Each structure stands twice: as structure tokens, then as C-alpha cells.
Amino acid sequence: MGSLHEKNEGNTKQYKNQLDEETLFIVSQTFKALSEPTRIKILHLLAERPHSVNEIAERLEMLQSTVSHQLSFLKNLRLVKYKREGTTMIYSCDDAHVMGVLEQMIDHAQHH
Ligand SMILES: [Zn+2]
């Protein structure tokens, strides 16, 4: 009986260290968000300061429709947020963890 009890404790401990489905889904979606050059450029620009959709399109020389599409992807993952100023939407970063990962990755790419 003693050995069975130990076995159960071991299983419980292992279970606690396992990633649940929701966590796995969010982590993989977040890496997916960071795996596209356009989205990397948008997030890196927003790390500087908040920008409107127009400003992002101008700075990155991209179509406004492309920028809007990518911003909604990033918004769904809660990586960006917006506030309305009149008819203008001002976007900014909404997650310090992910921005930290992105900046680390940029540093990594540039240190060689
Ligand atoms: Zn490195």
C-alpha cells in the first residue's frame, strides 16, 4: 500500500507540472503572432510609443488594410489595445511579457 501511495503522489506532482490545453493554445498562438515579419514590425513600432493605424501604415510603408488586419490579430491575443480619439484609433502595446520576449529576440538576432 505504501508504494501505491508514493506512486499516486508522483503522478499528482507530474500532473501539476503539465501544461493545460488552454495554456498550450495561448503560448502557441502567441509564438505564431511573433512569427510574422509584419506583426514584429508593428509591435516593435508600438513599443516606441502609441500610434494610430495611419501612422503605422506610413511609418512601415504598408497598406492601411494590412495594418488593420494585423492589429485585429494582435488585439485578439491581447498583445495590443486601442483607445478612440475622435475618429482615430490609437494603438499601444498591452502585454509587458510578450514585448519583453520580442525585445529579447531582437537583441538575440543582433548580437551575432
Ligand atoms: Zn542570443
Automatic annotation (TrEMBL):
Pfam families: HTH_5. InterPro entries: ArsR-like_HTH (IPR011991), HTH_ArsR_DNA-bd_dom (IPR001845), Metal_resp_trans_reg (IPR051011), WH-like_DNA-bd_sf (IPR036388), WH_DNA-bd_sf (IPR036390). Keywords: DNA-binding, Transcription, Transcription regulation. CDD domains: HTH_ARSR. The keyword Zinc does not apply. Residues 19-112 form the HTH arsR-type domain. GO terms for molecular function: DNA binding; DNA-binding transcription factor activity. This is ArsR family transcriptional regulator.
